[in-house]
């Protein structure tokens, strides 16, 4: 037994697959241990211990964004466009979620990212010959993956990246062993991004549901979906220049149902952001619990919804040191009252949160 260890007793444990009978989980240092006794004890009072939740689509500005995650059981955040230099001092702090970041996203001249969202002109990729410049700049800045804004060129004209440029960005990112996340909110954008061979489609279209052929293509190419339903519900309610009139959140729900049914991994992400330039305010932390509830309404079981924010996300997105309550994994933990595999809303009844073994709530 080490000097600092904690036994969380009388908890049912969602290990990433199923919920156990009440037992004890011991944390030693930053990791889950195989021991059964410890120097301090926390009575779990018959609640359920979950792996810390992972939000696979946020935008980070400052410490307060991360603190909201810690307070709501979100222990890892994947930022999908931010100013990296403002976040560097927030890595590795013991009471805040761990995070990764895309840095600046690739977009076309005249797109919303530079005209409205405040990203610098180096965000603009002028054509296929400019793709390698964009990717190497991001790697030099410390981006953990590459984000590409893919819009429907029939609506956005030259303010949308063309197919050749998207393909060149994917080729360059893959040559540097970087995963590519594509922002896609229309079916034509999903088709373009899929044809270009991106790794993750983030957002779910609201202009129409994905048809069977496109779902089959996404499945065949091994692409992951992070649909951000909580954001798309807000987007569908507003007239945006990126969309024709008639957008419907029901299309996004239908697409998630179809993707999940086809076996495409669907991971939980919210698009949470506190930036004043964003058209919406999706709250860090609490929005992830809402996303899990929307996944259940789209046809995932509560267990599948939990997996989408824990073990499945961890294993698919290079976070396999966490996401499950197994000895040796990071002690990112959420203690809740009730059983979220029976009623997903139980994830909101939080009694305790640990990040890498440090209790933060
Ligand atoms: Zn986003």
Question: Tags for this entry?
Answer:
single chain; 361 residues; alpha/beta; Urease, subunit C, domain 1; TIM Barrel; 2 domains; eight-stranded mixed beta sheet; four-stranded parallel beta sheet; 12 helices; 15 strands; binds zinc ion
SSE diagram, text form:
Layout: E1 5-13, E2 23-28, E3 31-33, E4 40-43, E5 48-51, E6 53-58, H1 63-71, E7 74-79, E8 98-101, H2 112-115, H3 131-141, E9 146-149, H4 153-156, H5 163-175, E10 180-183, H6 187-196, E11 200-202, H7 212-220, E12 224-226, H8 229-236, H9 249-262, H10 286-297, H11 302-308, H12 311-316, E13 333-336, E14 350-355, E15 358-359
Parallel strand pairs: 1-4, 1-5, 6-7, 7-8, 9-10, 10-11, 11-12
Antiparallel strand pairs: 1-2, 2-3, 5-13, 13-14, 14-15
Helix pairs in contact: 3-5, 5-6, 7-9, 10-11
This protein binds zinc ion (ZN).
Task: Summarize the structure in words.
This protein is an alpha/beta fold. It has 2 domains: 5-49 and 323-359, Urease, subunit C, domain 1, CATH 2.30.40.10; 53-316, Alpha-Beta Barrel (TIM Barrel), CATH 3.20.20. 30% of the residues lie in helices and 19% in strands. A hairpin with a 2-residue loop joins β14 (350-355) and β15 (358-359). α5 (163-175) crosses α6. The longest helix has 14 residues, at 249-262. Zinc ion binds next to loops.
